[in-house]
Write a structure and sequence with these properties.
alpha/beta, two-stranded parallel sheet, 4 helices, 15% strand
């Protein structure tokens, strides 16, 4: 898992953002499971967006965001979040965007 690799490389990750609910059929461990086991707080998407809109990320340990990584994330990430990091944002999506947006784009 990409998150585990970042942790193993010594990256300091203040939190991860996940969709609100995880389906029971998802293979385990999920990103939420790994983050919680590593002691990294998990924020859900909609509350995270509200924190960004209200400029309250400092309260969640993100005084200055260096990177944003999106890895198979099911939501369109708004410019307000993509503009947060000092170094950049990386969106991993397994198909060309915007033509094949959404989950499972590689199937087409």
């Amino acid at each position: 898992m990409a998150f585990e690799h970042l942790l193993a490389q010594g990256w300091k990750l203040p939190y991860v953002v996940t969709p609100a609910e995880e389906a029971e059929w998802l293979p385990r461990p999920t990103l939420r499971d790994v983050a919680q086991d590593a002691g990294v707080p998990v924020l859900e998407w909609k509350p995270f967006c509200r924190l960004v809109e209200q400029n309250q990320l400092k309260e969640k340990g993100a005084e200055s965001v260096e990177w944003v990584f999106s890895y198979l994330f099911p939501y369109l990430i708004p410019p307000s979040i993509l503009e947060l990091p000092k170094n950049g944002a990386l969106n991993f999506h397994p198909a060309p965007l915007p033509d094949y947006g959404g989950l499972g784009g590689y199937n087409f």
